[in-house]
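If you are new to this repository, start here. Below is one unmodified record pulled from the training split, so you can see the exact layout before writing a loader.
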Amino acid sequence: MQSDLDVIIEQKPIEGPGGVINYLQTGRTVAPSVMPDIVAVPTSLLADSRYHGLFYPLDSLLDPAFKADIYPAPAGQALNGDQILGYPFATTGLTHLIFNPDVITGTIPLSWSQLISDTNKSLILPADSREGAMLGLQFYLAEGGTLIDSNGKVVLEPEPLARALTLIGNRKENLLQSHQLKTLDEAWQYHQLGLSDFMWIRSDYLLGRQELDPTLSENQGFTAVPGVSGALAPLTTSWAWAVTTSDPARQKIAADLMGFLTTPENIASWSSRSQFLPASRSAVELLARDNPYYLFINEELQRANPMMVAETSKVMDVLGGAVFQALTTENPPSQIAEEAAAALRQ
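And here is the target side for that same chain:
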């Protein structure tokens, strides 16, 4: 690090007027002297052709050995072959189930049908929310559904969606009052009272709860979300540092700053305070020394896939509505799926 330099930090939204993307697209020609040298952005933006030229490759600035330390989901978006587009540092949104290991002592099935058909077990999730939409998306993808057609438009395919909704709606009584819940806080209260055996949760939410009560990491069990024929793949959003200056001297300084910010010790320290997960294995290994939850997290991040749409997108609205219908009506899943696909086309 260069101790004689000042670091000025500005916080901006990613998109929209005044956001980072708009700032970079317009500011270079209007006020290049006040442009940032380094930005933190979702890794999905780095290889997006719409933003070509906003971020400069780091190939000659960073030791490529760091790539082996990055989990597959963020690496797949921030690294394009031998080209380094950004330095991933954080991941969020990972979903899984929690349970009380004093109550659940046997092997937990990784088939949703098997888990949800056990009348002695119940699962709670805030299904009337983005969590319900995320569950629907994960099952839809597991059933072979795609989100982008040959013309590059966002779509939902009725047949795999119908299969996904059939599974989700199977034995809906074992999802207790999930269709009435809108937040993880509501589901958490329900689960903590011992009214459900399993709870759907996100890593950042659970880490926030562990910060309030560190004993939770010792008194909870964790398992992947059961799926069609095995565990559902988690879908995560990752963040990376990217260089936005064309000045070679400033690029070198920005890379030095990246190197400092992304040491395993610094990433682990920041992650433990922010409730984001590290994008690197070495930082997770450090955190696992004091919290066994990260041993499970390491396994899940190894098989996670990148979240391919914004959680505020129309497709998530439509999926959330379809899941809600599957849990609250007797409408055939095929009908719900057809209506959802049509709603997205409008």
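Two things worth knowing about this chain: The chain has a mean pLDDT of 91. The CA atoms of residues 147 and 155 lie 5 Å apart.
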